[in-house]
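Reopening this one. Same input as before:
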Amino acid sequence: MGLAFDGTTAIVAVVALAVMPYVLIRKNCDWVSLGLTFGTGLLLVVLFAMDQNSLRWAGYFRFFLSAFPFLACGAVAFGYATRPRTALCAGLLALILQLPGAARAVALSAGPATARNFLEHYDSPILFPISSVVKEASKVGLLPENAVIIANQPDPEVTDRPRSPVVFDTSGKLHCECQATEPYILALFVRYANLNAPYADRAPRKDEIYAPPFRNDQLWRELRTVRSVCLARLVQTCSHVLERSEGGEVVTALGIR
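Same output, byte for byte:
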């Protein structure tokens, strides 16, 4: 649950639970609102008790969506159970405690693409700065409008995007040489970040709960192993090589003959 309630946000979560019995003992308690709040909480407990497949992802943000309207009922009930000034102070304090998490989310969104890799779990998108490097090449006149860029498929879930010049080789082959038949090539390397950061320098054990999927990790690790050789070959065979480095490592390299 630390994924969803980290830092000062945890204080808000604990206080929200503590407020429930406080509202319960009030004489003018809004039993309907409080009942909805308690009932929703119990349903979420039952959900995770029965759905063992989702138990490891209890802190996943989408599981909170159904609870938000009922949590709002609880907030309204608290507002009626206490004085307006007290409710206002509590709301402002909760907002202040939420600010660090909100600031971090904004910083991640505005930061490097790969800084959002594995932010929560391994069913999240794997991001690469492909658009920026392609736009740079087009801006300086290195890419014609009808150019087709051949790229390695760094993960089985990576697929072609509509109206994108990048075509992924589904065989997983890493293209590191500019040729007459392949004048435009793109080499992609997965950056281990956030939840995946502990495994950047070591392979995960099978008994580790939050370890990356073995087959995916095996492919990512193989790409990282040959990265320096691939980049050197690009420099040798391509007239232009545009790179993108994030977190101190090259994650994208576009070779143009």
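So the earlier flakiness isn't reproducible anymore. For the record, The first helix runs from residue 9 to 24.
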